[in-house]
């Protein structure tokens, strides 16, 4: 057997360079690149291996370990899980900074390869710099903190272990059912060790993403239930987008006369004006989708994990409604006593369609759904139209951005007031141009994801547009350094900061549940001058990182500035003061903890109202 002698770090990198995937008929590297921050746990061995292949596997320098891993998450979303990035860091705080990003990838079922240095396998230098010590277990390091937030975890303490570990790690990343982040810890002394690796280990491999077909009996059961429907509804989730099944789902819905509503992760599978589209569903959804959900007797949930923001904490549906759940993950498919059809969305919908015969709803049912959607669009028009108000709302800002956005531009949001407003108000022009990270609602995702999304605009499967990142001032302050990254690397995005003076949407929830405004808006915080809080000059801040920037005093100025930003050759930031109290209405409930006893009468009243919400919940698992 022919062998190749190299260090473990060199072997790992060589293996990763020889992994490929087919996208739209083209063979491309499975890993498009590496985000890296080097420290004493990876700079001498892993960086030596990466430096040698930098033209084949480019390494991009991050500013923060969390944000560079979030950029990898944004890249994976933009590539619809068909291509991935690597995030590499040292031991200690560098590694543990990536845990938040791992949780974001885990909640959203997205592939990211996380590589972190580790302590010495031989323990001779212990305790090393940045090592935490557990007195009862010397094997524990900070890298164990990744275990709850990754699909696959390993620590390499012998160089030959990667021969079995790496194929398992990559198979996990590409499995539609188990897809998620992978973590591999690299002991410092193991990285340096040489080993005679089998030459076959480095042979190029082209991975294919499987499309598991459903069990025939499950399809038959689903058909039987669907045939009983008088008011069926399709919920299209993120799995539809990742299965590249949007055309099949839309054709199925149109043929059968069933309206389609979208989850937050699923938004963007259909264009806003598609004939079967009836709006986003749930807590940050549309009146049209929620009205249809309330009356639906059979719900066909495709590629969704039925998160509380989709189901209104399970108050959005009749307690007698029946669910059919199509999902590659058995865990998701069996939720709430659903008829579980475990399989790929495209393959399963195709088989379901073939088995349904001439089943279709009367045209009047779709007409009713479109009527409700027309009413919703009229409501959006009303809220997005300019007014004489001194301070514009999120909805008005979104209306301007949506007007100027090019069809292939991708809107990105994640936390604060943005997700609700863009999920409701953004009218998708082309498929796969919307990314609202709300599985983890990770503050700080937005700008980092914009950098990753911009990187994903080349090659097969790319939309070719410009990322438009929308976020609030609170989120901007949490993580903004990848404006500098994008300028450095030449990956353009447009960042729009809505400055509403703090954490406005959580202030809304706080007060809605009876608690006086406290520690959310700047004026309600323990600060030196609450009557006139210091506001950050976002324009100067962005310009200091090399971006173009402009402050907008009105919606007219914002529209002009967006046109200017579109014409620029580099990352551009726009900021506008926004209303902290004006929101587009939604009518789905949400279950959050409300105190059973309180000195505030407003809280006691909110608790009474909340008990009514809980009385509407479906009982399920």
UniProtKB/TrEMBL annotation:
Domain Thiamine pyrophosphate enzyme central: 219-352
Example of a GO MF term: flavin adenine dinucleotide binding
Matches recorded under InterPro entries: DHS-like_NAD/FAD-binding_dom, Myo_inos_IolD, THDP-binding, Thiamin_PyroP_enz_cen_dom, Thiamin_PyroP_enz_TPP-bd_dom, TPP_enz, TPP_enzyme_TPP-bd
Alphabetical list of Pfam families matching this protein: TPP_enzyme_C (PF02775), TPP_enzyme_M (PF00205), TPP_enzyme_N (PF02776)
Protein's GO biological process: inositol catabolic process; isoleucine biosynthetic process; L-valine biosynthetic process
Ranges of residues in domain Thiamine pyrophosphate enzyme N-terminal TPP-binding: 34-130
The Thiamine pyrophosphate enzyme TPP-binding domain, residue ranges: 421-575
GO CC annotations, alphabetized: acetolactate synthase complex
Keyword ATP-binding carried by entry: no
Keywords: Thiamine pyrophosphate
UniProt record similarity statement: Belongs to the TPP enzyme family.
NCBIfam families registered for this protein in UniProt: myo_inos_iolD
Protein name stated in the entry: 3D-(3,5/4)-trihydroxycyclohexane-1,2-dione acylhydrolase (Decyclizing)
Organism of this sequence: Marinobacterium nitratireducens
């Amino acid at each position: 057997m022919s062998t190749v002698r190299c260090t473990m770090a060199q072997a790992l990198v060589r293996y990763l360079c020889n992994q490929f995937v087919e996208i739209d008929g083209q063979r491309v590297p499975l890993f498009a690149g590496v985000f890296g921050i080097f420290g004493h746990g990876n700079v001498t061995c892993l960086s030596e291996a990466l430096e040698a292949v930098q033209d084949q596997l480019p390494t991009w320098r991050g500013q923060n370990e969390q944000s560079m891993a979030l950029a990898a998450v944004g890249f994976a979303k933009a590539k619809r899980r068909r291509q991935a990035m690597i995030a590499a860091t040292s031991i200690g705080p560098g590694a543990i900074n990536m845990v938040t990003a791992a949780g974001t990838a885990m909640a959203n079922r997205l592939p990211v390869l996380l590589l972190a240095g580790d302590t010495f396998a031989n323990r001779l230098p212990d305790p090393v710099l940045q090592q935490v010590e557990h007195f009862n277990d010397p094997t524990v390091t900070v890298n164990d903190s990744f275990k709850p937030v990754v699909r696959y975890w390993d620590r390499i303490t012998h160089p030959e272990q990667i021969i079995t570990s790496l194929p398992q790690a990559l198979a996990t990343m590409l499995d539609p059912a188990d897809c998620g982040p992978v973590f591999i810890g690299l002991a410092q002394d193991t990285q340096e060790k040489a080993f005679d690796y089998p030459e076959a280990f480095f042979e190029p491999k082209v991975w294919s993403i499987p499309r598991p077909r459903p069990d025939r009996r499950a399809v038959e059961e689903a058909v039987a239930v669907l045939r009983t429907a008088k008011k069926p509804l399709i919920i299209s989730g993120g799995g539809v987008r990742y299965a590249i099944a949007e055309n099949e789902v839309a054709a199925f819905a149109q043929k059968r006369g069933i309206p389609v509503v979208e989850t937050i992760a699923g938004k963007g599978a259909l264009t806003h004006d598609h004939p079967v589209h009836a709006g986003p569903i749930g807590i940050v959804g549309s009146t049209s989708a929620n009205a249809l959900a309330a009356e639906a007797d059979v719900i066909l949930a495709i590629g969704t994990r039925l998160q509380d923001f989709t189901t209104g904490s399970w108050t959005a549906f009749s307690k007698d409604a029946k669910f059919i759940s199509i999902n590659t993950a058995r865990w998701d498919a069996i939720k709430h006593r659903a008829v579980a059809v475990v399989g790929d969305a495209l393959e399963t919908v195709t088989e379901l369609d073939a088995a349904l015969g001439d089943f279709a709803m009367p045209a009047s049912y779709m007409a009713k759904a479109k009527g409700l959607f027309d009413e919703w669009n009229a409501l959006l028009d009303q809220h997005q139209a300019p007014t004489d108000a001194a301070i514009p709302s999120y909805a008005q800002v979104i209306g301007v951005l949506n007007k100027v956005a090019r069809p292939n531009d991708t809107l990105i949001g994640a936390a604060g007031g943005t997700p609700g407003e863009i999920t409701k108000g953004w009218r998708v022009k082309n498929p796969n141009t919307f990314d609202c990270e709300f599985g983890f609602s990770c503050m700080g995702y937005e700008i980092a994801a914009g950098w990753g999304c911009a990187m994903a605009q080349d090659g097969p499967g790319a939309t070719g547009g410009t990322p438009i990142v929308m976020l609030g001032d609170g989120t901007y302050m949490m993580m903004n350094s990848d404006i500098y990254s994008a300028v450095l690397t030449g990956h353009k995005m447009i960042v729009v900061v809505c400055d509403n003076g703090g954490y406005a949407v959580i202030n809304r929830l706080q007060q809605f549940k009876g608690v006086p405004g406290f520690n959310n808006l700047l004026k309600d915080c323990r600060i030196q001058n609450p009557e006139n809080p210091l506001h950050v000059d976002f324009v100067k801040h962005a310009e200091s990182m090399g971006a173009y920037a402009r402050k907008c005093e009105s919606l007219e100025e914002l529209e002009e500035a967006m046109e200017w930003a579109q014409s620029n050759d580099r990352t551009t930031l726009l900021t506008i003061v926004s209303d902290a109290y004006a929101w587009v209405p939604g009518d789905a409930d949400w279950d959050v903890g409300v105190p059973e006893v309180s000195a505030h009468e407003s809280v006691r009243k909110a608790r009474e109202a909340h008990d009514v919400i809980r009385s509407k919940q479906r009982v399920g698992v």
